[in-house]
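I hope you will forgive my troubling you with a question about protein structure. I set the record out below, with my sincere thanks for your time.
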Amino acid sequence: MMKLRLASVVLAAVLAGCAQNPPSQNVSVSQAAQPLPSSAPAWQQGRTADQAASTLAPHAGRLTAVPAADIPLNTLKLPPGFRIELWASGMPGVRAMSRTESGKVYAGTRGIGRVYEITDNGGARTSRVLVDKLNQPAVTYHNGNLYVAAIDKVLRYDGIDRNPNVQPVDLTARFQLPVEQHHNWKYIAFGPDGKLYVPFGAPCNICMVQPGYAQIRRYDADGNNMEVVATGVRNTQGFAWHPVTREMWFTDHGRDWMGDDAPEDELNRLGRPGQFFGFPYCHANGIPDRDVKRDRACDGVTLPVTTTGPHAATMGIHFYTGSMFPPEYRNVAFVARKGSWNRTKKFGYDVVTVRANADGSNATITPFVTGFLDTQKDAFWGRPVYFLQMPDGSLLLSDEQMGAIYRISYAR
């Protein structure tokens, strides 16, 4: 009965659908953008009748431990002087990471519902499951406390670095979490203002969305004083603050089923709270949507710093501030592209750097780690997702598909 009631709420929310940036122009919504029957998978929403026979579908995650010997790191290529090595493995689905003062690393997952605690024993790393059976949890560490945000729950582990077995404080009621799951999986981080930033993705591939979705919010650390800082954000899976301007930059996934090459994913800059980034009317560098149409679709839309490739599944972003890498990498954005599914020839599965002026102008994208994808065979083995900068200036990179974390270093 509870599942049925929840499904009714979800369907009503999609049907109700009012845009977060209410248009003054006429809006029309095609049949392809309507809610699917409950028996159809959510990722099929937005397909047209002539795409019904398509064999494209999301790639299944490898949610079992992969032996270290089965991870082909020798296929990866980096710029001269850089080295990549296995730092930890055996953590299925590992995603975003956060580090405590003592050096413990906590990492969330998506499909497997775990939070891992990883301990560096000097030359080797061991891991344990801190908490299990959550709904796609993400983590961040702030002022001695570990925050865990799932789709339907927010937990805080106070003083976990001193007491690894501390019981969590349940903050869920304060966060006003919406019920829909699609694109509501989390990435969380504290900004320079001491606020906790949390995304709430669109509950669809393409649709009119009700308030509460397709947005980024910020909260006080205790969950109070919620503010919406960005709207029209379809599905951000990573954000970071520019080291000079302290402005948030965030990735955003483009919609599916508009062809192999459009719309591209985005890297955006939040110059001021309240900006509107286009969903569902306008995508990438100003592409009007095929199924949710309005007059002057891209009016009032903040366009991206740069697009990051078609269906690339652009994930984590990190501005490098260490001293290990050469000086030309200082304040450069590292961006992980997990890789496409809604494309006949795969794209992404790599790490790139984005060099741009502090205001986001003159952005250029350069390959940094390649080799997760065999372009000749159109087959991948790994899916890079998130970064963590270490005190020595090296960079950790998580691989959701292999359940592994790699260390990137530089030797002069």
Summary: Confidence is low (pLDDT under 50) at residues 1-19. The longest helix spans residues 2-16. The radius of gyration is 20 Å.
